[in-house]
Amino acid sequence: MRNERTISIPGTILLVLLVGSTRSACAHRMKVFAYAEGETVVAEAFFSASQKAVGVAVRVLAPDGDVLTEGVTDGAGEFRFKAAYRCAHRIVARTQDGHRAEYDLPGPELPSALPAYPGPDPAAEDPAQPNPSPAEQAARPALERMVEEAVARQVGPLRKQIEHYESRARVHDVVGGIGYIVGICGLAFFLTGRRRGNVNSHDVHDGR
Predict the structure, then answer these.
(1) pLDDT tens digit string along 127-177?
(2) DSSP labels for the chain?
(3) pTM (2 decimals)?
(4) Positive or negative, the Cα torsion across 149, 154, 159, 160?
(5) CA 202, CA 141: separation in Å to the nearest integer?
(6) Please, which residues bridge with residue 103 across strands?
(7) CB-side exposure of 94: number of CA atoms within 13 Å?
């Protein structure tokens, strides 16, 4: 009886650690990322670089917490919407089982031609800056729109790749940790099994 209890204790502990690590990894693996393509905001939810989060509920919040829009991700794991204001947007994605991920899109990444959000926006531009001349005001929107669209085409996909790379790196770390725990568990079972075999062998010799 003593040997059986000794064998079960390390196996039970390692099994609990393995199950707990797996659940923790699954509970935090979803991510959401967003970038602007002109006035259109593209939000993408994913579990890994190759697994998109399809049919996930997405809610877009204003700086003061009001809901600007909401919907679900499509077959590519994306949710697109047209921004109504130039302000910070908080993208919140939530699965049916309660897992949550969010991303903050800064207001300056949206076109300056959009109106300011009527509510409070801590990230809004400083109104104390000097006003431009009428000629500058007339020429600025077209020039800024061209620059913003060009930057969005280059920066958006690059940031998307970085987000996916970080997600893939974290998945590799989790898998490596689980493999390490499985290896320890196997070693523990091997050693305890060998110990039990040695005890049984001694019992046989003693009986002789």
Answers:
(1) 445 556 666 666 666 666 666 666 666 666 666 666 666 666 565 566 666
(2) -HHHHHHHHHHHHHHHHHHHHHHHHHHT--EEEEEEETTEEEEEEEEETTEE-TT-EEEEE-TTS-EEEEEE--TTSEEEEE-SSBS-EEEEEE-TTS-EEEEEEPGGGS-TTSPBPSS--TTSPPTTSPPPPHHHHHHHHHHHHHHHHHHHHHHHHHHHHHHHHHHHHHHHHHHHHHHHHHHHHHHHHHHHHHHHHHHHHHHHHHH-
(3) 0.53
(4) positive
(5) 89
(6) 91
(7) 9
Residue 41 zone, left/alpha/beta (φ > 0; ψ -120 to 50; rest): beta
The position carrying tokens 């280059």 is 154
Angle at 83 between CA 134 and CA 116, to 5 degrees: 40
17-57, pLDDT tens digit by residue? 544 444 444 445 789 999 999 999 999 999 887 789 999 99
φ, ψ for residue 133, nearest 5 deg: -70, 165
